[in-house]
Amino acid sequence: MAENALSGPRGSFLGRLPDRVDVYEVGPRDGLQNELRTLPTRDKARLIDALVAAGEKRIEVTSFVSPRWIPQLADAEELLALVGRREGVVFSALVPNLKGLERARAAGLEEAAVFISASEAHSKKNINKSIAEALAGAREVTAAALQSGMRVRGYLSTVWGCPYEGHVPVERVVDICRQLVDAGIYQLSLGDTIGVGTPRQTEEILGALLAHIPVGKLALHLHDTRGTALANALVGLSAGVTTFDASIGGLGGCPYAPGAAGNLATEDAVFMFQGMGVDTGIDLDRLVEAGEIAQELIGRKLAGKYLQAALGEREKKASRRART
To answer: What is the pLDDT of residue 9?
Structure first.
């Protein structure tokens, strides 16, 4: 396990880095739920197939939230039946309540995710519950999922800031995370939902959490609204975090966070990690192919910088070949 680099450098400017990280792909769920158009189920399955072909092993494919709230993901059961099971790949889904858990269990999922906000105002806007009510619901779903043999992951939104309240006290974040760990959640994904985080703030948040929670239980879910997602990911990496949520092409946002741009692009994260000698198990060229499929299905250019650079280079080579 990597040492905690927050206490100072160990032989290099960044300190000792992990040898390997997991990229937790959220594009098919967090990405597509924010799109105005609803993709046909077969197109979603095509995108997931491409992500698996690129070497992605942890993919959140859908949500069992009521179709009334997120119609883009109303085909959860149909999609899971279409993609089937893949050896060595874990498909997961967001599960808001016991009814959603029952649907996820019937669909054969091995892993569920619950979600909570660190801000009262965002919690009310997002799920119409207070933080206390959301915690009670998460504990209920977690207990039932664990009893049925499923693992449970937790999302904590607005950790770096809230679109309605602004600053979110780090003490509140620590308290919520400790309660979620005590409930049996195996991993906490900390969300910079509106992309306001800076590297120093990320260092402070992780420092506060690592005093109570092992680094192996933490993941980062960073939005790139202000262009700081990779910088914050680098702070997390140097602190020993080894799971990073990312979305193909930078797809995503939050329906209840005005102005929130997309997630950290998977291909940008993989390029940075692998360029620093940190293994991801993902093939960048195949990932670009998946990003190209995502663009085709969505019908517009995506924000991922590595994706656009790679596609631009491909166009230049094709143009040169056409002239010779």
So the answer is: 42
